Amino acid sequence: MFDFTPDRSGTETLSKPELYRQLASAADALTSGEPDGVANMANVAALMWEFIPTLNWAGFYRVIGGELVLGPFVGRPACIRIPFGQGVCGTAASTGETQLVEDVHAFPGHIACDAASKSELVVPILKDGTVVAVIDLDSPETGRFDDEDATGIEALAKLLSCAI
Ligand code: SME
């Protein structure tokens, strides 16, 4: 049995850097030695859901045939294909840069998969300088994500570059 949960011993709430350090360590332990990218993304989607509070969607879109295609996730069913440059995910994929959106309704072209989503963090995963997937986190709270979340997910994206 796998038991990967945040270790809160000795503290009431984990700092974000510590939470993301534990998440990365669990992701590393779960994916190392496993060559199947879909299996690894599925386990990391489950880990993000387990570790990161106040989410309504956590998962991956993969770059296939020049567009983003839905990958493993936890949350409600989502749009399957997103062209590069469209929505928050497509913008992260086309620019290769993290998109931290405090209010999705203020983001031009935001694609609403779940009406509950109010803020979003999308981080590209690069392999040899090319975007191969994005990590997408949605929250029902406006302004849920900050620079510490972005830094934590960027570290996870780097770690996953060789695992997906
Ligand atoms: N909101 C995203 C679409 C994906 S869902 O949030 C799961 C976007 O604008 O790209």
From TrEMBL:
A cellular-component GO term for this protein: cytosol
* Domain of life (superkingdom): Bacteria
Which residue numbers delimit the GAF domain? 67-164
Under Gene3D superfamilies, the record lists: 3.30.450.40
Q: Entry's InterPro entries?
A: FRMsr_CS, GAF, GAF-like_dom_sf, Phosphatase_reg/MetRdx
> A GO molecular-function term, please?
L-methionine-(R)-S-oxide reductase activity
Residue ranges the record marks as coiled coil: none
Q: Provide the family line.
A: Belongs to the free Met sulfoxide reductase family.
Read off the PANTHER family from this record. FREE METHIONINE-R-SULFOXIDE REDUCTASE, GAF/PUTATIVE CYTOSKELETAL PROTEIN
| Protein known as | GAF domain-containing protein
Q: Which organism is it from?
A: Pontixanthobacter luteolus
